[in-house]
């Protein structure tokens, strides 16, 4: 077994977001954990501090008639799309997961895609997290 440095982060939104343009990077400002200092709340981007396999998860909550299309992006390339088009429920959420091999300096972030996002609920309902799960 090879020992490696713990690299992990978890951050959520401080407040609700309304009417975000298409291709807007979501900045999760409320950082709960940032081992390895890879996540930057000012940009909303995670930068891999070292080579490895990483796991990322995210979850978003919207209200009735809320529309949110989310992309998980690695170095300007979309890798996972999740979406909500809520016409029925008072609130509804979606989540996503990405496992990806990163080199030191690769960047991962969450952004809107396809259509503008009408409403994203802040607080602990909406988050982005990631961790290194193996060295290369």
Automatic annotation (TrEMBL):
Location in or out of the cell: Secreted
Superkingdom of the organism of origin: Eukaryota
Keyword vocabulary terms for this entry: Secreted
C1q domain residues: 2-136
A Gene Ontology cellular-component term: extracellular region
Coarse class of the protein's main subcellular location: secreted
InterPro entries to which the protein is assigned, alphabetical: C1q_dom, Collagen/C1q_domain, Tumour_necrosis_fac-like_dom
Protein's name according to its UniProt entry: C1q domain-containing protein
Species this chain originates from: Magallana gigas (Pacific oyster)
Taxonomic lineage of the native organism: Eukaryota, Metazoa, Spiralia, Lophotrochozoa, Mollusca
